[in-house]
Amino acid sequence: MTKKESYGAEAENNNFENPSKENTVLNAKASDSDDFVEFSTKERYIQKYGIDPTKTPVFISYNAYRRIVGYAMRYGNDDLPQRNWREVYGILIGSIKDNKDVIIKDAIPVMVGGRAYVEYKSKHYVDTAEFNTAIYERAIQDNKEDFFVGWWHTHPGIGFIFSPRDIETQLFYQGVNPYAIALVFDHCQKGSKRNYLGVAGIRLNNPDRGMFATYSNAIKLKCEFTKEEMVQKVEKDVKEINKSIKHTLKQIEYIDEILRKKALAQLQRNFGLIMVLKRDIKITADEEEAEEDDYFLYEWDPDIDKKIYRIPKFREKIEKELKKYEDILIEIKKTDQAANYKKKKEKFSKKIKEMLQKPNDFYKKIIKDFTKRIEIISPLYDYLDTDERKIIEHFEGRSSEYQKVLDDLNARSEFNL
Ligand SMILES: [Zn+2]
């Protein structure tokens, strides 16, 4: 595969800007000389927002840089065959300092897109709408005070050109925030004279022109450390990632396939505590499909529940026992037979605890296994994308639903009425 072929896909769609890598330098020059043609538009931008989109600098923390490179290198590096290189996308979190500099504190990996060239329009292609939705979801979840100051994606072997899709995405960002920056990473450019970090900062010069906007791909990037230190440090981190990424991903797969789909599903089957909405009951062997519409309820109200929910046998049995014993104890309490009350209470407590023994042990075993897996995953957690993080969150969600009911039943087994 020659270099030239590798530009094809993105370039093909790019009717507005220079498509090829050979032209990247020319392209940058063209943007500069465009200043004359677009003088009024850029001036308007400066007047309107008080910043020059081509010059307002960007500060990159090492934290953001290592996450960009670390995630990107999973899908594009010299050890991978070029035909397998894929673009990745993420968001930039930070702030605007003194109404001037853009400070990038974090770069969160969001998703892997299509192959960097050929099949650009295949189903793997991440369309802008999907990407923007993912961004909003992450932005809402992930940042409290800082906000998203831009986005990042990779062009493995393609260089720092903007495709029409990229312009579209950047229009969205700059429309909301005139400082918004796009960082593009190309590992092939790392160590180069012009882009030593392998990163270019890109902004539209004249977003008023919509899809016909031009862009600058030479925004000044300031770093937390010297450029040499940044690259040196990141190469060390990438080494660690390469060493353990496979093992890490195996743990995630284990959490999904074994712990959630098998162990948790079996726990609910044998010692069902979570109630399921009746209309959504699906007769299916696929637990994953069946649980999508699950509805969880913690309060016990059999009159209403039976109409609406499928009540697991185990839950029904233990709730009935609890109710029975609670009623007896309340009656004894009224007669003020302290000794009898104590004896009965101990007996009932023992019975319920015996019933709960197996689900308690089973649940503890699952959680112990999960914790072990998380310990392996955590050093590389920062380089996982949304889908991968979601698997962990999904398991946590499912297991905590079960735990809530179990905790409640354990507490009630003490009969502290
Ligand atoms: Zn792109």
Topology:
Layout: H1 3-13, H2 24-37, H3 39-49, E1 58-60, H4 62-75, E2 86-97, E3 101-115, H5 128-142, E4 147-154, H6 164-176, E5 181-185, E6 199-204, E7 215-219, E8 221-223, H7 227-270, E9 276-277, H8 287-291, H9 302-308, E10 309-310, H10 313-335, H11 338-377, H12 386-412
Parallel strand pairs: 1-3, 1-8, 4-5
Antiparallel strand pairs: 2-3, 2-4, 5-6, 6-7, 9-10
Helix pairs in contact: 4-7, 7-11, 7-12, 10-11, 11-12
The protein binds zinc ion.
The site of zinc ion has 5 residues, from loops.
**Biggest β-sheet: strands ordered side by side in the sheet:** 7-6-5-4-2-3-1-8
Largest sheet: 8 strands, mixed
Q: Which CATH class of the largest domain applies here?
A: Alpha Beta
| End-to-end C-alpha gap | 76 Å
How many E strands?
Answer: 10
What is the radius of gyration computed over CA atoms, rounded to a whole number of angstroms?
Answer: 29 Å
Name given to the CATH homologous superfamily of the largest domain: Cytidine Deaminase, domain 2
Q: Under CATH, the topology of the largest domain is which?
A: Cytidine Deaminase, domain 2
Query: How many separate domains?
Result: 2
Can you tell me the overall shape? elongated
Mean pLDDT: 81
